[in-house]
Specification:
2 copies of one chain form a homodimer.
Chain A (H helix, E strand, L loop, with lengths): L4 H12 L3 E2 L2 E2 L6 H16 L3 E4 L5 E4 L6 E7 L10 H14 L4 E6 L11 H6 L5 H6 L9 H7 L15 E9 L4 H5 L3 E7 L1 E10 L3 E2 L11 H19 L5 E10 L5 E2 L2 E10 L2 H21 L4 E8 L3 E2 L2 H14 L4 E6 L4 H5 L5 E6 L15 H20 L2
Parallel strand pairs in A: 5-6, 5-7, 7-17, 8-16
Antiparallel strand pairs in A: 1-2, 3-4, 4-6, 8-15, 8-17, 9-13, 9-14, 10-12, 11-13
Helix pairs in contact in A: 1-3, 1-12, 8-9, 10-12
Keywords (chains A, B): Hydrolase, Manganese, Metal-binding, Zinc
Protein name (chains A, B): Zn-dependent hydrolase
Cofactor (chains A, B): Zn(2+); Mn(2+)
Chain lengths: ~400, ~400
């Protein structure tokens, strides 16, 4: 099985013109640029013989007209603000290349994988039946607060039905994506066969102290919520390496001291903290460590801390047979220049994996730049990627 | 010498009605409420026989018409937003009570001691000749960015001359103020004779890292500016007690991680850090410690830190003869229920002290609440305060 790499690259470059920003793109979900790219995609699908359809949240699917067994392949087509040209677009154009090559593939572009709206994985969750009308009614744009129903109406999607994927139709789901890290690049490798997608466990740590004048309050009298937060974060930094897995990561993305003035002792501190791993056991160990450190903090500090779980996703393991097919293809096309590796970022594949076998392929990321207009992959690596994906998909269809 | 404590309390309660907010007041500098209180003050000054005048930055002075030697007494009349009824108002009404009692006192209300505009101590610095027209032209409101010249124009002050205090006219400056801490309350004491006003040294600590995706970047690859900031702040917390003085304080008022999103490793962190002491030697030791810890941080961390001094004020020591006069008055009126203590907060007295002897008297603060509408002092302590102030001022006039 071979894919037409030149056409695949030409498609990517054509799509990159819609919402172009410097060398990247700006296509936030349901923006005019995003809707233009969805319409463009439907025309492309029709060109390669698929039956295109857009649903009530903007999911675009192009259905293969022939008999099964079918594969589902794709990703998402909207971008983060002023972000890279590949990201989700790569997986959708890759899926289109599979269909063009004659494989029995339904091509899908899930809406809002990037989470411009706070529902999270809106399109893929809707497509597997994992989101309610209430949740859609309550969701808002994270940047400007626009209610999701209003945005859907403005995009002309109000009243359309939402599609439901039928697991019986598919043998599995393939998603190609840029790595969003430097593991492949650092090792001089060109293809990553993804073993699983890490789960993100997000927490809000809230410290309650007492707001006081920074001049009139002695160190002994203070209940400085910011200082308690700093001490706990320093403890986490020391203790997490003892409990984490080899690829675990943890991140403090925001620290808010209230009121945030130079001469006022913070009466409240709020920390956004998250960790990621592909193993539930490791995630549970990290949470237990976090809660133990919070307890120790409460014994030591004058400002109690509340640990609030915001979200605890389930890690998704990739299907072993699909991984084997991709590995065999990678070894055939790029011997010794590929590896198996987890995905540190979230992807629609983790949602789809809840209803069918799923697997992912990574292309290297130049300098690991992600969610920024400078994001890029060498064209020869993109071309190799589509060859491995097509060969892997054909191998998988051939087994069992 | 006795002051009319009942009239003094009645004045305070009358003033509290202007801009009343819950049990406190809201009189930001040059707001209609603030300007109303300045006009009210000028009428009060005339009532007690002073010659009132308002200058080009809103300083209000009521000059004693008789012969010297004169004292200057006062504080400020604007408030922090939604703040307490005493704060600066106490010192101005206290000064008015001295004039009413017949002492040769000029009463002054300096404008914007609270620093609504970023010039800092605008009124008192202007009155000692320590602020240029350029600085006034460049100053802005910290909350809404309004240029100071625009605010002065709106308040009807444009074009008025700015007053200059003549040190030759005064034997010294007295300022009464609420403690803004719990030292007196905790000890069951009722009067504080201030020994000096601590200086605030303010710094901005800027950490430069690399913004990356929190999923795709391993812990080893990261250059997390927020984590470097947390580690340095934890070090400061451990090391400062070794170099500080008995009443030193240090405060982190704000931590800003950039971009501040849950799934993005902060590429930049900015910390507002300050410390205060009454001794330059201690302040210099603390700064040396901060810079040593920053150097160690640079050796240890992947994110370099820049230590930027925002402001380094000079501590003001109170005049020993004035302190002795206040101490004798305190011992006479409240034997064993007073102490000498530094002021942790900044006051106009530290500016005035640059051109004449200055001293301050503290009343206890209930619960140490400051810059909040709940700020309060027991009425019996307010009454005692004005008696000690009047007696102390008379004793000081009698010496030398």
């Amino acid at each position: 099985m071979t894919a037409d790499a030149a056409r695949f690259l030409a498609d990517l470059h054509e799509l990159r013109r819609i919402g172009a920003f410097k060398t990247g793109v700006h296509r936030p979900t349901y923006s005019p640029q995003d809707m233009e790219s969805r319409e463009w995609l439907m025309r492309k699908m029709a060109e390669v013989g698929l039956e295109p359809e857009m649903d009530g949240v903007g999911n675009v699917i192009g259905r293969h007209k022939g008999p099964g067994p079918h594969l589902l392949a794709g990703s998402h087509i909207e971008s983060q603000n002023e972000a890279g040209w590949l990201d989700g677009a790569l997986g959708v154009m890759g899926a289109l290349a599979l269909a063009r090559a004659g494989l029995p593939v339904d091509v899908i572009a899930f809406a809002d994988e990037e989470g411009h709206f706070d529902a999270g994985f809106l399109g893929s969750r809707s497509a597997i039946g994992d989101i309610s009308e209430e949740e859609i009614a309550d969701a808002r744009n994270r940047t400007d607060g626009t209610p999701l129903p209003e945005a859907l109406k403005a995009a002309g999607l109000a009243g359309r039905p939402r599609m439901l994927l039928d697991p019986a139709r598919y043998k599995g789901y393939f998603e190609m994506h840029i790595e969003q890290g430097t593991t492949l690049e650092s090792a001089g490798e060109r293809v990553g066969v993804v073993t699983g997608i890490v789960a993100i466990w997000q927490f809000r740590l809230v410290f309650e102290g007492r707001q006081d004048h920074a001049g009139g309050t002695t160190m002994a009298e203070r209940r400085d919520a910011g200082l308690s937060a700093v001490r706990l974060l320093a403890e986490i930094d020391r203790e997490f390496p003892r409990v984490c897995g080899p690829r675990s990561v943890w991140t403090t993305g925001r620290i808010t001291l209230d009121p945030g003035a130079p001469s006022i002792i913070p009466g409240r501190a709020e920390v956004l903290f998250q960790f990621r791993d592909v193993s539930v056991e490791v995630l549970e160990r990290m949470e237990a460590c976090l809660r133990r450190l919070a307890q120790e903090s409460d014994r030591r500090e004058k400002c109690p801390v509340r640990v609030e779980a915001i979200s605890k996703a389930v890690p998704a393991l990739c299907d072993p047979t699909m991984m084997d097919a991709l590995s065999a293809a990678a070894e055939a096309k790029a011997p010794g220049q590929w590896r198996r590796m987890p995905s540190g970022a979230g992807h629609d594949a983790q949602v789809v994996a809840q209803i069918m076998p799923a697997a992912m392929l990574f292309t290297p990321s130049i300098g690991g730049i992600s969610h920024h207009w400078a994001e890029d992959t060498k064209e020869e690596d993109l071309a190799l990627g589509i060859e491995v994906l097509a060969d892997g998909a054909a191998r998988y269809l051939a087994v069992g």
